[in-house]
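TICKET: design request
STATUS: open
ATTACHED STRUCTURE:
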């Protein structure tokens, strides 16, 4: 991995992935791309590229002489139910274009799947690495299709495709947009801003979560792993913790005792969350490439609040 193109570089994961990759490989080694120019200064090359337009992405990859693509551009679960056709176009059509460019230009590809690739009928506690995947959201369908497309491009064309199934991701630098787990970011923002949060999921909705520094490290460690150790490739379950809105609120009150949470459940996002597992089994990632999270709820909360209160 020497010359990298990141798609979705202005997004919640992309912003921090670009920074981490530039710190590790050098600013000029990482070309950030997105359909919109990221806010704030970029300390390295940027290009406008739309993954739904194959030539647009191909030109960026060719110009950068990339050997690796971190494909992070996607529409998330809640917006995916509002705009299913657009989500199909971006999440499946965009990935297909990335894989075709990678095949033509001999690039390795990292692209994340999600716990949303599971659905009703999947064992919920824990969801195994290999199990039933019948998601009932367009986002989840696009993630299962993506896992299978990446496997196909590896077996049929030899493309070095790798990926993980991320849980909900918590970060303070760039806020998520349109996800069902966005509450786990909003709760911290509101705790600092107003001391009160109206949560759109019910108090006992348990989901897997991960702090963004762990998510970024997981992607880089997987891409740097010895391919001979990988029995799975494109859908490693990875997780760091299981939380509910109530347990996150409790963790916040350790620092802000007056913080209050109320519940105004959004039935659409509650139904999406209820279709996902309560806990995923990430033993395959731990065994095959040494995955291990560094942050738990307590250390994530301390770091989130410290950064939001000084930001
Ligand atoms: C979403 N943040 O909420 C994403 C994620 C597991 C959830 O894939 O849609």
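STATUS: resolved
RESOLUTION: sequence designed for all positions
ATTACHED SEQUENCE:
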């Amino acid at each position: 991995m020497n010359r990298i193109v990141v798609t979705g570089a202005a997004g919640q994961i992309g912003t921090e992935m670009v920074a981490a990759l530039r710190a590790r490989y050098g600013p000029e080694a990482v070309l950030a791309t997105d359909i919109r120019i990221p806010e704030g200064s970029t300390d390295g090359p940027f290009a406008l590229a739309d993954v739904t337009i194959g030539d647009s992405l191909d030109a960026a990859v060719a110009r950068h002489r990339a050997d690796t693509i971190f494909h992070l551009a996607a529409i998330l679960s809640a917006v995916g139910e509002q705009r299913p056709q657009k989500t199909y176009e971006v999440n499946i059509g965009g990935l297909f274009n990335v894989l075709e460019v990678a095949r033509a230009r001999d690039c390795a590809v990292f692209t994340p799947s999600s716990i949303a690739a599971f659905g009703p009928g999947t064992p919920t506690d824990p969801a195994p690495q290999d199990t039933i995947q019948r998601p009932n959201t367009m986002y989840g369908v696009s993630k299962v299709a993506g896992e299978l497309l990446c496997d196909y491009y590896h077996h049929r064309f030899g493309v070095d495709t790798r990926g993980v199934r991320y849980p909900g991701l918590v970060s303070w630098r760039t806020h998520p947009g349109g996800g069902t787990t966005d509450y786990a970011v909003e709760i911290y923002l509101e705790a600092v801003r107003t001391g009160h949060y109206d949560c759109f999921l019910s108090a006992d909705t348990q989901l897997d979560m991960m702090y963004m520094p762990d998510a970024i490290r997981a992607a880089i460690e997987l891409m740097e792993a010895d391919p001979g150790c990988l029995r799975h490739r494109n859908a490693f379950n990875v997780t760091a913790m299981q939380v509910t809105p109530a347990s996150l609120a409790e963790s916040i009150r350790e620092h802000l005792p007056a913080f209050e949470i109320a519940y105004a459940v959004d039935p659409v996002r509650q139904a999406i969350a209820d279709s996902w597992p309560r806990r995923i089994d990430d033993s395959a990632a731990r065994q095959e490439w040494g995955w291990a999270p560094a942050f738990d709820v307590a250390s994530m909360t301390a770091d989130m609040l410290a950064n939001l209160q000084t930001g």
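CLOSING REMARK: The pocket of (3R)-3-hydroxy-L-norvaline is lined by residues 76-77, 114-116, 139, 167-169, 176, 179-181 (CB under 6 Å). Residues 214 and 293 are 6 Å apart (CA to CA).
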